[in-house]
Amino acid sequence: MTRDNGGNGHPESAVPGVTDPGAQVPERERRRDPLRRMIALARPRSSRFALGVLLGAAATGAGVALLGVAAWMLAVAADHPPITALSVAVVATRALGVSKGVSRYLERLVTHDAAFRTLAEVRVRVYRRLAATEPFGRFRTGDLVSRLVNDTEATLDLLVRGLTPPLVAVVTGGTTVLVLTVVYVPGGVLLASGLLLSGFAVPLAMAALGKGPGRRQAEARGALSTTLVDTLHGAPDLVAYGAMDRQVARVYEADEVLTRVEQRDSAVLGLGAGATALVTGLTVWGALLLGVLAVEDGTIGAVSLAVVVLTTLAAFEIVAPLPAVAGKLGAIRASGARLFGVLDTPAQTAPARKEDLAGDVCADRAAVTVSGLRVRYGPEDPWALDGVDLEVPEGATVAVIGPSGAGKSTLASVLLRFLEPDEGRVELGGADITAYPADEVRASVSGVPQDPHVFASTLRENLLLARPGAGDEELWEALARVSLAEEVRAVPRGLDTEVGTHGTGLSGGMVQRLALARAVLASPRVLVLDEPTAHLDADTRDTVVSDLLDAAEGYSTLLITHDLAGLDRVDRIYVVREGRVLQSGTHAELLAQEGWYRDVAG
């Protein structure tokens, strides 16, 4: 079997959702402008946003009409007409005032609801993509956090502030110009010119000016987050080596860079606000001047003059938000590019095709067979595994041993469906694991990674990750199986003991046993133990290996290690160097042979 490393692969479903989170994004989609792709995320709720635009247009139009009707009423009232002549205007004023508030509330309710639901879907997409692609090594922790939080939330800013207001401006602005043109043609033309300047030319200039600062702002925010997270996570080592002051200085430097970029962004926004105010003032003065001249030559009356001037003033409420939005487009585009940098990350494993499935994986037997397995991390990289053949019989314990860099952990990643074989075949219970969804394979193959993650919660919560519905009796049984029950019973809070951040409240051996208890609790058919003693001292290592092998009895177990502790208890040992199997046999057989195993053991 050969994996296709091409660029197109399996396309995503139509934006915004991805039916298969491991599907690769087409090249054409990746090249689209990030803003267009972010707007496309809202496509399933386009009807809601359309309703929001209509409600926003109603609210803004009511505001403009309110000032226009008020101008007419005040101008007419100056002649002291009968109160009945103003009754319609009074009622209209009240109706417009109420409708403006109600429409604005409904518009915010509808658009924000649609935007937040879209944001929730985007977050799910990001998490699903991360789960499918395992790209954590491609992004630094702080940068990934910034992408997950700040850059993802930029979608909300674009949909709420960058999508609805321009559409509302087109609808309401066009209507207002049309009505004013009916009242006084030159006034309508002047208003159209002012709205085009304030709602198109100024925002266009703001978008151009804000493009650079916006991109730098997203980068600076990511750099600050990365530096800060690195400082927090590495605090013990930084203190131990006397490097904390230098690292804190880096945090301050990153913060200063972000502050300078944000100041420039604020200057761009201020310039846009000033330009809008200038255009507004000039347009209103122009309307007043043209109106006065028109009144003098009898083209329009004094009442119409008041309506034209105040309606012109009110109309700029329509385009007022646009320059600020345009100034932010650079930052939003940069955030979108960073967001899609995560979503476009290619999957490490190809999605399973339903037509290839032949029943449940590992339905009958739990034997593992690896034949001619070849894996590398890139087309130009050397082979991490180069023609590996091995077998783990059902219920047997098999060890894979070799020096660091031999390819042992790569083998574990393939078995756990974190990597796709380039060539060869891996069978589980006689079934090719690449033909099944990764999660289905992982339900049958569980393991303990070299650095198991312990969540900053209780022992109970860490165990329940493997089986959320497990009762206390099942939890204690899993702990007893890995020789951890007595230690947990000895602490006052038992299963409710807090383990601390990254398991700092536990010893290294307890962390490994807890990770194995979690794996056992998942009821797998195959256990993969990847360097379970990598960070333990010699005395603890021997004890932990013994406990792990005891707990693994009854499972098909693959023990991946670089030392010989406990290997006299395993059924077969494979020696791997430079991605190839050099020796295989039992502990006694390998000691009797010349080679790497006997050299290390001797």
TrEMBL record:
Keywords: ATP-binding, Cell membrane, Membrane, Nucleotide-binding, Transmembrane, Transmembrane helix, Transport. Gene3D superfamilies: ABC transporter type 1, transmembrane domain, P-loop containing nucleotide triphosphate hydrolases. It is found in: Cell membrane. Residues 368-601 form the ABC transporter domain. It is a multi-pass membrane protein. Residues 1-31 are annotated as: Disordered. Pfam families: ABC_membrane, ABC_tran. The chain crosses the membrane at residues 49-75, 167-185, 191-209, 268-294, 300-320. The keyword Protein biosynthesis does not apply. It comes from the Bacteria. InterPro entries: AAA+_ATPase (IPR003593), ABC1_TM_dom (IPR011527), ABC1_TM_sf (IPR036640), ABC_CydC/D (IPR014223), ABC_transporter-like_ATP-bd (IPR003439), P-loop_NTPase (IPR027417), Type_1_exporter (IPR039421). One of its GO terms (cellular component) is plasma membrane. GO terms for molecular function: ABC-type transporter activity; ATP binding; ATP hydrolysis activity; ATPase-coupled lipid transmembrane transporter activity. Residues 50-334 form the ABC transmembrane type-1 domain. GO terms for biological process: cell redox homeostasis; glutathione transmembrane transport. Belongs to the ABC transporter superfamily. Lipid exporter (TC 3.A.1.106) family. This is Thiol reductant ABC exporter subunit CydC. It comes from Nocardiopsis kunsanensis. The lineage of its organism: Bacteria, Bacillati, Actinomycetota, Actinomycetes, Streptosporangiales.
